[in-house]
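Deliverable D4.2, example record:
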Amino acid sequence: MSRPYTPGIKAYTSQKSVHDMRPVHGLRSIQEGDEDPRPQKVNDAGLEPHQIQDLLSEILAVKDERYRREKMLPKPENRTRNKVVQHEPASDSSPAEMRDIVTAMELRVNQIFTMLQNLNRESGEVLERKLPDLPQGLFEVKKNLLAMETPPEIADQVIFDLKDYLPSSALRYPEEAIRATCSWFEKKLRFSPEIEFKRKSGPTIVVLIGPTGVGKTTTIAKLAASYGLSQTHQRSIALFTLDTFRIGAANQLQQFADIIGADMEILYKPEDIDSALPRHQDKDLIIVDTAGRCQKDTEELCELNCFIEKLPSALKYLVLSANTKYSDMIDTIRCFGRVGFEHLIFTKIDETNTFGPLLAVLFKTGKSLAYITNGQKVPEDFRKASFDFFNSRLFPDAEF
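Output generated by the structure prediction step:
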């Protein structure tokens, strides 16, 4: 005859074998039967990497569509920026109301895009390309890329591509792997040629665009001096400035123009270009300085585009500061891509000790690099970009 059950923890411990009871388990379970409860897992890995990338692409497509619509709408005289419209547009909405609606939608899309970018960055472990154990050569390459502060996702992509490029011996030996990687980067990265001057069809026109504070005006002075004061290939130069917003910008450029003997024009509206160009058809080179624009401000980019459209044959250079975060440089390139540009210029090289982000920008975007600046001296701290600059800085911490 079985003993009666007595409640309580101590009683349970002494009586569980008699009453054939299951041991107490720390996890709650709805499992039936006599077997021990099993922990219940929730397998929710969230969005897959390709799903997040597809969502980002859809967001960008929506932003581009809003941008095209806004360009087609007339600009109102008094526009309240970033005004959030709470009602649905009526079929007979005025152009001003439509612009406000588009602006509100643009603001919301920007917020969503930023949120997804943060999600993408914070989920790096999920999105990072999974690689098997690396051979010693590739391991050394990746270690040095990360030491240069190359973004991890770019380092992973480089290693993935190198696996099919490097010979088997380079995969095993670090010194050979690093030499082969430098050779691979030399073929992969793009650098633009020198400015080509027209012979009989008028001056070559160069336009520098970019966000505020990256050093466009100083870079223009260096570029103008390198050609206007050249001992072997001196060129006649005119400087145009659209920067009537920043205090002292025009005066600063005028001083540079006086030093190198160049003419200068201040342009207040796009129509001023039509009258200024004929006055300088005898020049070899016209360099155009633009006001710094916030890459997130669609209206400012539209205003800049109105000027650029007046110079269809111009070579356009996007100026980026080397001490800018990698993610911000990528965002700037994407936004100014709406205006259009052919080449990049990196400024303030002397103000950073990490070159991995610059390498990553060229690798990620495929854009060509034209010039780099590394100081305030005019024109000494200005040079034509080439792979030699990166080759001397790749893998500085390599140990053999």
